[in-house]
Design goal:
Elements lengths: L4 E5 L6 H12 L8 E5 L5 H7 L5 E5 L17 H7 L3 E4 L2 H6 L4 H13 L3 E6 L3 H5 L3 H16 L8 E4 L13 H16 L3 H6 L1 E5 L4 H8 L6 E4 L6 H12 L1
Parallel strand pairs: 1-2, 1-8, 2-3, 3-4, 4-5, 5-6, 6-7, 7-8
This protein binds 1,3-dihydroxyacetonephosphate (13P).
1,3-dihydroxyacetonephosphate binds next to strand 8.
Length: about 250
């Protein structure tokens, strides 16, 4: 059985004051014991969040990192080794906003994925198609190519210590959620792609759905056989809403 996971991507939101309130709200949530919960604050808030959630069972991750694990002369970057030193456990790689706004290529994503693992952290690899690609019938080929950029370079075995998040770009921050059936179709295909190389690994790898997940739609999405939890953006900035999503993953 795969252990469900719910991750909150806080994106570039929050001040120390609002983050303190969010931490307070999260510490009051009754979180299900059978679900891994993680939050991904802005990097300048990582220490505050690590300290604030230290008594809680919520892991902390970074939204981004440098493409190399070692420290170095890379002004403005944060190495995954430094994130590990801080106490982070996860790093998002290949989020659609990194791909589209910052021009990260499949190769960049693959390099970051490898750097994250080399530092002992767990990458959460984000994949997903745009609306144009979906309308052109290219969803499965686009997602498959994004996954293959990592599998082809690093081998399928790297997914023993990684999480995959399917986030259709058209569903991110739009209020449009993929239907459970639409999401399940892609999740099943991702799992099949991994199974074609390693069927045992395919059964254990967690595939999260992201894109306008809310408390109101979480249970239906998480009820699908290949959806192992969620990567939540906007709704993760509200502790009660996020707590409810976590409980939906545990039921
Ligand atoms: P929303 O939940 O706000 O649509 O964002 C999803 C996302 O991008 C999480 O990484």
């Amino acid at each position: 059985m795969r252990r469900p996971m719910v991750a909150g991507n806080w994106k570039m939101y929050g001040t120390r004051t609002s983050v303190a309130e969010l931490i307070g709200g999260l510490n009051q949530q009754a979180l299900p014991a059978g679900v891994d919960v993680a939050v991904f604050p802005v990097s300048v808030h990582l220490q505050q969040v690590l300290d604030g959630l230290a008594e809680n069972n919520i892991a902390v991750g970074s939204q981004n990192c440098a493409f190399q694990s070692e420290q170095g002369a890379l002004t403005g970057e944060v190495s995954p080794v430094q994130l590990a030193d801080l106490g982070c456990q996860f790093v998002l790689v290949g989020h659609s906003e990194r791909r589209s706004v910052f021009g990260e290529s499949d190769r960049d994503v693959c390099n970051k994925f490898a750097a994250v693992q080399a530092s002992g952290l767990i990458p959460v690899l984000c994949v997903g198609e745009t609306l144009e690609q979906r309308n052109a019938g290219e969803t499965l080929s686009v997602v498959s190519a994004q996954l293959d950029a990592v599998v082809g370079e690093l081998g399928v075995g790297v997914f023993a210590k990684a999480v995959i998040a399917y986030e259709p770009v058209w569903a991110i921050g739009t209020g449009l959620t993929a239907t459970p059936q639409q999401a399940q179709e892609v999740h099943a295909e991702i799992r099949a792609q991994i199974a074609s190389k390693d069927s045992v690994l395919a059964e254990s790898v967690r595939i999260l759905y992201g894109g306008s997940v809310k408390a109101a739609n979480a249970a239906d999405l998480f009820g699908m056989p290949d959806i192992d939890g969620g990567l939540v953006g906007g709704a993760s900035l509200n502790a009660d809403e996020f707590g409810a999503i976590c409980r939906a993953a545990g039921s």
